[in-house]
Amino acid sequence: MQHHQIAMLGTGLIGDFYSAALHAQRSRDRVRVVYSRSEERGRAFRERWDIAESTTDMKAAIEHPEVDVVVIGVPNFLHEEAVAAAAEAGKAVLCTKPLGRNAEEARRMLDTVERAGVFGGYLEDLCYTPKTTKAVRAVHAGTIGEVTWVRSREAHPGPHSAWFWDGRLTGGGAIVDLGCHCIEIIRNYVGKDNRPLEVLCHADTLVHPIGDEDNAVALIRFESGALGQFEVSWTFRGGMDLRDEVAGTQGTIWVNNFLRTGFEMFSAGGSGGGYVAEKSEAHRGWMFPVGDEAAELGYIDMFTDMFQAIENGTPPRESFYDGYVVNAVMDAAFRSARSRSWETVELADWRGGQAARIGSGRAPETHDGQVVIKREILPDGRHKLILKDPASGDYTDRVVAAPGS
């Protein structure tokens, strides 16, 4: 059984979550050295996670002779530099979301790892939450038929680090921060061979005095005819809202990943208050803790997938190419928000397949030569059919006995 020595780049909240996951379930993998732009933060992080070394030299951390995997958790504007250094050093590289600040930057990073022949994994944790993993598996097994519509929502009061709020460093506001999660969740449900064609987006700055959007809603049209819908907000109050809905021709899935998932706690202000859950704003009254955040947010299963893929020489569930596609969809969303019209998703490199139109391989149900539009069961057990005459185009309804009666 292999074990890995990791260079952790970044000491923010994401670095804490990554280290908690790495040093927990897969404890044979250890962070060997941590890089921080601040010597003080690096030292504190090293002590917090029992790491042997810290440094303010990114290149030195990446080229550490005992390190074989580089985990990138630094701000967006440093991703490309870090990826290039890791690829040059011949190290496997795992990069946090979003891969780039735009599709052009993401494409360059994809090209960099592929030219170097190193492993590139995209750390999109919310695609690995236990609920999402099980729901996606059910969808791909055909449990709800063909997917027609997916809604993914992420909303909270805003990021926890100053650089997040500066679009010059990040590439945008809530769309770049949260929309990347939603887009890739949607892609997992509709199928990654299903090409995203165009986007219609409304974005606005409603609350925070910043230069980028703090709220946005977008529609993504896929080749199959399926529609994706994402809603993102940096102005939601009351915690972090992570919800998904999936509609299919034969069923529906609702997923609530984080807020009010069955663990509720009330405090009138007793001792022992403090951190409740990520983005939680409450320390008294009714609160909604999360049992194991690293697990519930997908970090543990994400790293398990990444390291197993490295060891087996197989692609991870989320790759640099996936990150590039997500950036291309976000670029189209920004263009749409400016033009106030549908904008094409510009993918210079499409590696997916070709998705069939929803319903194209399915023969409609018929009754007495007429097409059954809908069938419903009445209180007495009989069936009511809504029928369409294929010759005239007329619609009628008819009540019939239950099949087999």
Q: Considering the protein shown, what is the CATH homologous superfamily of the largest domain?
A: Dihydrodipicolinate Reductase, domain 2
Q: What order do the strands of the largest sheet run in, or round the barrel if closed?
A: 12-11-7-10-9-8-15
CA-based shape: globular
Name the average pLDDT. 94
Provide a count of the helices.
11
> Could you name the ranges where pLDDT drops below 50 across 5 or more consecutive residues?
none
Q: What is the number of domains? A: 3
- Would you list the SSEs in sequence order as H and E? EHEHEHEHEHEHEHHEEEEEEEHHHEEEEE
User: Helix content range of the residues, please?
Assistant: 25-40%
> What is the CATH-assigned architecture of the largest domain?
2-Layer Sandwich
In the CATH scheme, the class of the largest domain would be: Alpha Beta
Helix-and-strand structural type: alpha/beta
Backbone CA Rg:
24 Å
DSSP, total strands: 19
CATH topology of the largest domain: Dihydrodipicolinate Reductase, domain 2
What percent strand?
25-35%
Terminal CA distance reads 60 Å
